[in-house]
Write a structure and sequence with these properties.
alpha/beta, about 20% strand, about 35% helix, single chain, 8 strands, two-stranded antiparallel ribbon, Molybdenum Cofactor Biosythetic Enzyme, Chain A, six-stranded mixed β-sheet, about 190 residues
Length: about 190
């Protein structure tokens, strides 16, 4: 029997209205559903919905990484140009390293659908041995940026190898959902 590494993933939805119960958060269920289909690993989720407050976001990210020891943290919401959109600032405040390629690729994918994708300020960073990525807030956009398009790779193809490089668990994907890329020298033989 093949066993896969256990992965702990933090999911953080940043929304004033969803956190206040004005409407139901759609980002976290979409993320959980996509990850459940995409990953072969046993996954433990730590999911939270919080308001657009920089200190609260920073505190949640530090807790998910330093205390809960998540291997990967994915956020949704709060990445636009509005005054209350502060997820990128909170994410950068906890960063040891910035990984600009993730944000660049998400904007490239989203530009295929809407010209306003250039307004997105998603970032990705490494804190300790955890990768943190700001994703879009809409479920359809979340899936598109993670999976990619027929002619444009999604960002999740690079996530498993990035997590390898920073000392995290070996994340394995279902190729039918997302084919992860690793150099041959970094692949495990099953």
């Amino acid at each position: 029997m093949t066993t896969f590494d256990r992965v702990k993933i933090g999911l953080l939805s940043v929304s004033d209205r969803a956190s206040a119960g004005v409407y139901e958060d759609k980002g976290l269920p979409a993320l959980r559903e996509w990850l459940t289909r995409a990953l072969k690993n046993t996954v433990e989720f730590d999911a939270r919905v919080i308001p657009d407050e920089q200190d609260g976001i920073t505190h949640a990210l530090i807790d998910l990484v330093d205390i809960k020891q998540c291997d990967l943290v994915l956020t949704t919401g709060g990445t636009g140009p509005a005054a209350r959109d502060v997820t990128p600032e909170a994410t950068l405040a906890v960063a040891d390293k910035v990984m600009p390629g993730f944000g660049e690729q998400m904007r490239q994918i989203s530009l295929r659908f809407v010209p306003t994708a250039i307004l997105s300020r998603q970032v990705a960073v490494i804190r300790k041995n955890t990768l943190i990525i700001n994703l879009p807030g809409q479920p359809k956009s979340i899936a598109e940026t993670l999976s990619g398009l027929p002619d444009v790779p999604g960002i999740f193809a690079a996530v498993p190898y990035c997590v390898d490089l920073i000392g995290g668990p070996y994340i394995e994907t279902d190729d039918a959902v997302c084919k992860a890329f690793r150099p041959k020298s970094a692949q495990r033989v099953r």
